[in-house]
Each structure stands twice: as C-alpha cells, then as structure tokens.
Amino acid sequence: MKLNNTVLVLAMSALLLTACADTEDKDPSLLDGNQAGTGIGDASTNGLNNGSEIGGSNMYGSNSGDGASSLGPEFSDPSNPLSKRTIYFMLDSSQVQQDFVAVIAAHSTYLLANPSQHITLEGHGDERGSREYNIALGEQRAKSVASMMKIQGVSDSQISIVSYGEEKPAAFGNDESAWELNRRVEIDYQGK
Length: 192
Known about the structure:
- With 192 residues, the chain is an alpha+beta fold.
- 31% of the residues lie in helices and 13% in strands.
- The protein contains four helices and four strands; from the N terminus they run αβαβαβαβ.
- It has a four-stranded mixed β-sheet with strand order 1-4-2-3.
- The radius of gyration is 17 Å and the shape is globular.
C-alpha cells in the first residue's frame, strides 16, 4: 500500500511540474497548427473557437478594466479581432489553439503600435483539479499567450500576468458548457 501511495505522489508531482513548466519565448509549438491538448480528457469547445459566440456583457472581451474606456472603436467592432479579448483552452492544456492565433496577433500589432499601452493577461481554469493546480495552469496559459506576443515583438514591460485559477469563473455550473467558458485567458487593457 505504501508503494502505491509513493507512486501516486510521484505521478501527481510530475503532472503538476509539467503544468508549471516554463516555455521558451521562441517555442515553435505555440505558433504551429498542431494545437492539440494534452490528451487527458480533452473536450470540444463547441463552437467557442473565437470567443465571439459568448453573449452578454463582459463575456468576450468587454473587460471593464481601467483602460477599457480609453480604447478605440475597433475594440467594439465585432468583425475586428481586437473585440475578442478572451482566449479559450482545452482541458488540462496551456497550448493556444490555432483559432486564437489571429486574435493574439491583432492584439500584438495594437500593442506594438501603442507602446504606452499595457495589458494584464488573466489566466483562469475550471473548477476541476486542486486550487494549486488551477492557479499553476492559469499562469501557464497566460504565459503561453504572453510568449506569442513577445515573439511578435511586444515588450515585456507592456505585459503583466496574473492567475486566478478557478476563483473567478465566467460561468457557474458543473458541466462541460460552464467549464469550457472558464478555461481561458482574458486580455485586460490597463490604459496608457
């Protein structure tokens, strides 16, 4: 029995370390089209590929951060990728899906053109897993988005990262439709 507990502790430690592993800024897997999850219970995003299907206020990028009111009209135009400020992830994954590469590229281009603008990348997870695991996974998700932006030339000084784990859900519920809305990174503009 003691051997089984030791193996379980080692397996959980390895999983946690894998989720917390830092990626290099130039990790090519962040940009290629092979954005599969980890294979651990991956679920479909059911059409949430670009963040635009989520209705209601404050659900797909109308974040109410201090800088949101100073943003231009392109941020409220639903046909502009800048209006999408939520990046969704597969279960147990911090890999950016191909569907969100254009959204991240648009925000990167905007930040390059506006060097006094700053953002906070807020990482989130669903309620499954321990609090510590979800904090680590939310941070890794935010770091994945930040890495893609930095590869495109965005300055480190323009990007802050915070992880809320499961603490600030976008949707309440104990089913896949709620969980997929909570596995996300929100891009919050802080103002100039």
